[in-house]
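The material for today's practical consists of a large collection of protein records. An example says more than a description, so a record of this kind follows:
***
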Amino acid sequence: MTILPPDPDLTGLRVVLARLRAERGWTFDELAERSGLARRTLIDLEHGRTSGSVTTWHALAHTFDVPIEHLLGALCDNHTPPGTPGS
């Protein structure tokens, strides 16, 4: 029997990105300049049209000065993350 992991919460991921950008008062252009990522990529991430790559989220973590887990942890918002006692 194969046990599949729960689906990642991509909505949670984009909400974290939008919240961090809004907290800093940055436009998409400002975030693009600070992160080195394309404005279109950032818009697509925040609007849920793409999930991005690890490299993209790594760049964003450094740009926002947060651990990458702060960003990617949102993927498990609707279920118990792996490695949690009792999971």
In short: The mean pLDDT is 91. The radius of gyration is 14 Å. Helices lie at 10-24, 28-35, 39-46, 54-64, 68-72. The CA atoms of residues 20 and 26 lie 9 Å apart.
